[in-house]
């Protein structure tokens, strides 16, 4: 070890010890030989982090070669659908010991018919799925007949700062419970294409396959995130991992516990990330935020008084860096919730309270499928589909043949009764999406490319 590196190592350890001493008075971070250690904190936390094993069956779509279809004739379908058994491993976190609630990622338990939770002490329990949110990749399980469970204490991700020390706990590669440490590398990461609703904590704590659904904790042992994804070649760790903030997880779990589903909040605006060019054109002296290009009619935003040209910079007191981050914060808050938006209008800072609408108020159709951009959707009422109330000329939605006043009555021959049903059926489609359109009392189909 070189002298310069030795000095650097000592400085890092000293900084870590000082941070732990300052932030964790009353929690011993030294062993009997006065060596710094995280063991006392981890001994309290790790019993709340569990291994999850799943079994089930998935549909596999296999396209037949055209030559084979030519030989056997046109009656042979282009695709064959087969069910294949699968097994998987992941991690989870006990958040309520009395009721046995466990939080994990949706992709850990997706399509599972059998879910088994294994505690750190080796005990195994069957678990029941309470509810899931595919768009945010959160699932809530309940351990059946669990006894002497240990729950983790929830922290606050809004208090995190870049540079804060964090510890990741999970079950990488099925090895069993493993602990890694690092720092918060960035906050509010979005536009990664990992999930539909993205507002990630980025960390360099090693996260690998199997860590999904595990805990990201601070040095107080409080949960600050749910580990969910990594960025690296071949799924390996290169020091870039992502976790769902605990504040978002808490909002979703409260809805899953109460309703068994997420009743998503809707603001009702279209816009873009605020960049230098927009800031200069609008004479705004900030360069980060969500620029509101349009306020949809009859939306929660219009009722609260938002206007086109507003720049939203805060959501419930937390800074907003991009339009997608705003969408994630709104989309994971429950419908009917009152939220506070900090914004800049005509160079002046102000705060507006908004009562979020639900998924069946007016929404921009690009939130459901990118090819529908430019269309505004509203429920028809009486369970008769979804209406295109507005359509921007020369938009992607207009170019595929949609018109203002069209009613989307079904997806792939299955009727839809609401905007939320339209979203669910498009999300679930494995191949192309055929929209059943009612126009001037006639029926037609418009085909969209698959999302998957």
From TrEMBL:
GO CC entries: periplasmic space
Spell out the InterPro entries in the cross-references.
PDZ, PDZ_sf, Pept_S1C_Do, Peptidase_S1_PA, Peptidase_S1C
**Which CDD domains is this protein grouped with?**
cpPDZ1_DegP-like, cpPDZ2_DegP-like
Annotated positions binding substrate: 107, 137, 210-212, 267-271
Example of a GO biological process term: protein quality control for misfolded or incompletely synthesized proteins
Q: Report what the protein is called.
A: Serine endoprotease DegQ
Q: Catalytic residues?
A: 107 (charge relay system), 137 (charge relay system), 212 (charge relay system)
Q: SMART domains from the entry?
A: PDZ (SM00228)
Q: Does the keyword Protein biosynthesis apply?
A: no
Keyword terms, alphabetized? Hydrolase, Protease, Repeat, Serine protease, Signal
Domain of life of the organism in this record?
Bacteria
Ranges for domain PDZ come to 256-347, 374-441
Which family is it part of?
A: Belongs to the peptidase S1C family.
The signal peptide here is 1-25
Q: Listed GO molecular functions?
A: serine-type endopeptidase activity
NCBIfam families assigned to the protein according to its UniProt record, in alphabetical order: degP_htrA_DO (TIGR02037)
